[in-house]
Amino acid sequence: MKKRMLAFAALTCSLAMVLAGCGASNTAGSEDGNGVITAFDTEPQNLLVPGNTNESGGARPGTLLFAGLVSFDAKGKASNEVAQSIESNANATQYTVKLKPGWKFSDGTPVTSKSFTRAWSYVANVKNAQKCSSFLSTVQGYDDLQKAGSLKGDEQLSGLKDVDDSTFTVTMSKPDATFPIKVGYLAFAPLPESFYKDPKAFGNAPIGNGPYKLEGWNHNTEIRLVRNKLYKGNVKPKNEGVTFKIYTKVDAAYADVQGNNLDVLDTVPTADAKSFKTDQNVQAYNQPGSIIQMFTIPSNLPHFVSGTQEGTLRRQAISKAIDRQGIIDKVLNGTGTQPVDFTSPKTPGFSKGLKGKDNLVYNAAKAKELWAKADAISKDNDKFTISYNSDGPYKAIYDAMVNSIKNTLGIDVAADPMPTFQEFRNAVDKRSIKGGFRSGWQPDYPSAENYLFQEYDSAAAHGSGSNDGDYQNQKFDQLMDEAYAAPSTDAANAIYSQSQEILLNDLPAIPMYYDNAHGVAAKGVKGLAVDWQNLPVYSQLHK
Amino acid sequence: MGKYLLRRILQMIPVVLGTTLLVYALVFALPGDPVKAMFGDKPVNAAVAAQIRAEYNLDKPFIIQYLLFLKNALTLNFGNTFSGQPVIDEIGRAFPVTIRLALMAFVFEAVFGVIFGIISGLKKGKWYDSVILIVSLLLISVPTFVTGFLAQYFLGVKWRLLPVTAGSDPGFLDLLMPAMVLGSVSMAYIIRLTRSEVSSNIAEDYVRTARAKGMSNRSVIVRHVLRNSLIPVVTYLGQDLGALMGGAMISETIFNVHGIGFLTYQSILKGESNMVVSIVTLLTLIFVVCNLIVDMLYAALDPRIRYA
Questions:
Q1: H helices of A336-472, where?
Q2: Does the beta-carbon distance from A460 to B43 stay under 8 Å?
């Protein structure tokens, strides 16, 4: 009998010993070094290879690790980084890029023309399955690198030519005036020769030429960056390093900022949206940002057909029936801004004075009048639905919006939540949604082109881009082509403004609000600023 | 006993096979396309998508995918995640964390549950019995995520007594709050279970006999009352250890513990069937083994219970 009791006691003891063992590791936990900033992140979806990074988990550390030909300041203005000059021919079909001398990767190897041309070809080559490959689509030879069957993976883009170690030329398959801005995007980062030997090992321990270099990546836990002494670009870091702590949920990160365990969080959990601006435990920021939230109405939806008089009237009526400011104040607690165009206030060339912006302003009387006019052409008794994915924070917004439309126009409108983002995207791709559907856009590089071409040009419709509503307008397409061939960024921006006036009339999508860049920093953190990607300028943070 | 053990271990084979097939089918049946979802709102390059699909066998029919998974699993190759990390590494990182968390919760609930249960059971009707009952009722009825947020806000943010979240490489102190939250509901059940067992056993004839023989109060309670009272408690605890491992999800999310619960949740969202099935298989094994241990302990606690 005694023996059996002993066995039970032994089991309990052994458990206690296991626990004691765990306790020991507590002291070994990483102690923050002097002047190192901790920041929120999620585990990157992929290994940290620039051309395969298309989501914020990987982009946050990625943009600090790599420096491209140009860099952007907080306002989105591009200036030369690794590039000495990027010169275009008259119609933006060929560029000559000269590099600044003396740039090195953090492993000491030099940054040469080949570091760019070989990396870009790698991204474009379909055999390497890089998610950002389509960014290279305007470079000559891209189409040849899309035939997976006949490729080995090391074929080069025929439009790229190395003149010497510090000069290369880029020939485009069609004019692309945005190219000198595009090259600031992470997918265009240079790669050292060591990458090609073992891309997987590289992705786990990337070697870049950016203001920071990787010190360690403990998967699902933290990514530690320290200052890169070899970096000589535009960014002047004010801290010794940035440690990205990986979170599973924003709520936990918010509690950590409150408790001074985390320095900066670039979002706010829904539960705290109301209180974060007055929370005594944190420093809050909230300003117009670069993400635009909209819903698209398919261009062939019965009674809403694009380009027809009835369709245009109905689109305008629906848009005018939405009390955007009311929704921003009550549902978003002021973390949004009323839209006046199809890009964002952080986009260079943004204008508040476009013709037709009234269509984005709530006006109940006008909305009713327009709807009645449309009914006079052809009576619409169908139920109008707007779909969204309910795994995002959209329910309250869509409910409020649907109510606003219903109450103003007195028609049958309903929100149609779909359980997951995957399912939602699937339905969008199959064009199986018979109604409006959520569409948000976060820019990859600060240019109106990134918003407008991808979302509304005919070339991006029917599955070949992100024109999910299959909007087609010849005049618009023509302006896009003109902008692509424009001699300067300013000239292109003027054309983009013109093209937006067409969108403001046709409303292929109904802009709802600009997502404000909002988040919190711990007390005592200095130098808080927000860039054009709605992210804190990590390099400027210090304690 | 040996034969019984062998039989129980053989029984695990169909259990594991059945579970993996079922879970694989469920993940497969999830709506949406994981490869397309990787691109977010951005344009999908169809050729790239096809390339990724082929790499993960996602272009093959369900049963082939499952058989390929089984074949690889037999050679202990559980494949890679979509981010190119070996599944086994990810589990290897997350699992020890959850084991620590679950064991801490387990010890917490077992120790405090039994102690408070005995106190309550022995002193039925006293004021502290009532307090224990009310607190345990509260713990049972309030959902874990509420207890979790309250604990985090008051103990972590406001009074700064314990770390707000567990963070990287969690140690004993980091995991204390999550473990308490995770174990709190089960602790409440154990209190109530122990209490009712103790209070009914104390009135049994054999206890009166023991007292009449002149045994000390201490011996009577330890040898006669407790041993009999603990049998259902041990059963509950054994099954609960398995449940704690699987059920750590809420607690892990609130306190940012990078354990198995969170990994499962993420993998389901991403449609990573290999990962989900591997984890579930592991949890199934743990569950079965825990049950086995409980049955063994049963026999140890009560000589009347004998197996062939």
A1: 364-377, 395-409, 421-429, 448-456
A2: yes
Chain B residues 186-245 with a CB less than 8 Å from chain A: none
The reply to whether A44 touches chain B by the CB within 8 Å rule is yes
Chain A residues with CB under 8 Å of B160 CB are: 259
Find the farthest-apart pair of alpha carbons in chain A and give their distance in angstroms, rounded: 96
Whether the CB of A27 is below 8 Å from some CB of chain B: the reply is yes
Q: Do B169 and A28 contact (CB within 8 A), yes or no? A: yes
For residues A406 and A384, give the distance between their C-alpha atoms in angstroms, rounded to a whole number.
10
DSSP B88-156: HHHHHHHHHHHHHHHHHHHHHHHHHHHHHHHHHHHTTTSHHHHHHHHHHHHHHHS-HHHHHHHHIIIII
- Residue A530: helix, strand or coil by DSSP? strand
Per DSSP, the three-state class of A39 is strand
Residues in CB range of A86: below 8 A, 6 or more apart: A69, A70, A80, A95, A96, A97, A98, A179, A180, A183
How far is Cα A384 from Cα A318, in angstroms, rounded to an integer? 10
Q: Over the stretch B230-264, which tens digit does the pLDDT of each residue have?
A: 888 888 888 788 788 777 888 888 898 888 888 88
pTM for this prediction:
0.86
A400/A324 Cα distance (integer angstroms): 10
A:414-433 residues touching chain B, CB 8 A cutoff: 419-426, 429
In chain B, residues with a C-beta closer than 8 Å to the C-beta of A256 are 164-165, 167, 256
**3-state SS assignment for residue A370:** helix
pLDDT tens for B68-127 read 888 888 888 888 888 888 899 889 888 889 989 999 999 999 999 999 999 999 888 889
Q: Is A475 exposed, middle or buried, given 0-12, 13-18 or 19+ CB atoms closer than 10 A?
A: exposed
